[in-house]
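Q: Is it fine to ask for two folds in a single conversation?
A: Yes, each is treated on its own. Send the first.
Q: Here.
A: Result:
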Amino acid sequence: MDNFALGPYQVGTGRLTLIAGPCLAESRDLCFEVAESLYSLAQEYGIDYVFKASFDKANRTSGGSTRGFGMDHGLRILQEVKDKLNIPVTTDIHLPEQAASVAQTADILQIPAFLCRQSDLLEAAAQTGLPVNVKKGQFLAPWDAEHIVQKLRSFGANGIMLCERGTSFGYNTLIVDFPGLETMRSYGVPICFDATHSAQRPGGEGAATGGVRGSIPAMIRAALAVGIDALFLEIHPDPDQALSDAATQWPLGRAREIFELIRRYSFA
């Protein structure tokens, strides 16, 4: 297994890393509320924690959906969270020219699922020297992800992680191939499971993505039983009022339930 450093942590050595935060960096106060709460729980439960928030949601169902408040605004918030709480942070990039700027703040770069095969984006991410977490496209089989790993290795990536976030199954539906986690791990890289996006129903609400929030705990239990190196969650104090992914963000007030699941079902 090609483990790698993520801030003060080591990913891929048998210890679970939690990557969690709001879908969108809606405000400084929101990000700090989520980060401080989750970091406190992570310390209590002995789990490595990385804060996540996006500065731009470039892939939206409708052109009228909120995208975000720009890279400069989002990175300022992420940097402040990182500095004040002394925790690693991550966000996603959508264009090759964003990689170098985002790498000055982020500790690991996230590649969105729909962009997972974009060679220029992967190369730009690898050249920053940061580890790269690639979300496997909803349109890809687990064995297709081997080519993503090969590309990143050829670009000299300093750490690679593959992230499962569901596979398209007909219209407006995703399913998770849990044995596929083992297939992706066979390529010698750590594996992350994105539980909240796996619960989505893309376009399921017409002009917005829907989802089944109640399915998240069961999928987490299944992924932990198979064995994962990182768990990805989007968490919001009031998910129904969130500016993006309202149907599947997990309520911050119920975050302890997730930590209890990790403690009970993790076999690491």
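Q: Second one now.
A: Result:
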Amino acid sequence: MNFLIIEDDIFLASKLKYLFDKRQDINLVKVINNYLEFLDELSTIDIYDIILLDINLWNESKSGIDIIEIVRKKNLYVPIIIVSWIDDISNIRDLFNLWASDYIIKPFRFEELEIRVLKWFKNRFLKIENFNNKYFLYNWLLYDIEINEFYFNWKNIRLTKKNKYLLYIFLVNSEKFLSLNYIEDKIFWNYDSFKEKNIRIYIFRLRVILRDFWIDSWIKNIRWEWYIFKKD
């Protein structure tokens, strides 16, 4: 998953980035510390799967409430987990009325935060027909969300961290047309190196791995700039 952290406490933000960077189910972690940085990130807000938001940004003309309202106008469904020192129930109720997804009171346990993040990531699948408990299944290609592993006919597909997320994108959007730009943004979004950003190379490498399972042809290139993941 791609994870956006909006937190003005630099020390806490760095600890959170370290915590989630080391997880195998996290593709990219981005930290921003203030409202202006958030505005710079707004154009690519759709690439994120989870947002963690400190509701009280100190010395800012705008608060986390403004951020929630702006995000919801751009993306109605991305989970937004609020963290705050404020434990007033009326404040919590107001935030849920603004479509906050969850609320964690500081100081929080990092283990609890990890559990909450995974829970909301799983919730994204609940309305998907092929999701059952902790698995997503498409024609015997199975994704175990909790351990971030893929299997075909119950055989593990060994993948790099980037290729796991790439296969995840194809799988959850199976039989839908995806633009090359969309896939590239989801995988790389702020990488500057053209060599690192060559998404076609990553797709080629993924196909090579899937060839051992006879499913490489499920990734189809349509008119060069579009892809679809579909069983033959």
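Q: Anything structural to flag on that second result?
A: Two points. The longest strand covers residues 2-6. Residues 2-123 form a domain with the Rossmann fold fold (CATH 3.40.50.2300).
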